[in-house]
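tool_call: predict_structure(chain=1)
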Amino acid sequence: MHVESLTELAKDIRRTVIEIIHRGQASHLGSSLSSIEILTGVYSVIDIAKIKSKSPSRDKVILSKGHAAAALYSTLYHFGLMSQNQVLSYHQPGSLLQGHVSHGVEYVEHSTGALGHGLSVGVGHAIAQRTLGFQSFTYVICGDGEIQEGSIWEALMYASTLRLNNLVLLIDNNGISSITKTKNVISFGELSGAFFGFGLEVKEINGHDLVEIVTLLEKIRNNPGDRPHVIICNTIKGKGVSFTESEAIWHYRTLDDAAVKVALEQL
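tool_result:
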């Protein structure tokens, strides 16, 4: 898909996120909006037909920052992997689509929400893909607050030791961990240096620039090298809506009728 079309698609996904969070009176708006282009880029480079057929050789996508469920479910909807009625049921009583990602939902690889677990599962998938001779990739999306979990670094040490070049970790580096700046909780200094020291292939990009995202993802697919990949995606929490951008409170606050009207007008 042409990047201009992807940019419009990302806008549509962002609108859907706002609509379903409002309908369900849910939270985690900021976390969802920061990850839209990351998810759009990933799903644009994988084989959707293999996802639909549940082929054993399909690419795997794990949203480890599971509280951004609205972003993943909206992405699945716009890539034809979920019906409109289903996505509109988000956070409604009796729906499988709740505030954290669940593998009870079709085409979701792993339940997440307890932070720090998705990457370990992703390493397992990458090992299996390579062992079975599949030319497929595992993509894991983590938050910059999430990588404070020790299990992240244990998984990376193992991935590096095994040289899992079919593993791609994308960091949604929006600078806010829950309700404060990430660096005020635990500071990594120069984040790329931390990953590089683990023997990983590290790139840093604008996490809202689909040209950068897609170009790099396609480059990795065509020439994966011999090391696991980490892409630090510098993003803005609450991206796309002026009153939510870089405002930590939108990790928890939901949208009222007036706010959602303004948000959709801005998009």
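agent: Residues 3-24 form the longest helix (22 residues). Proceeding to next step.
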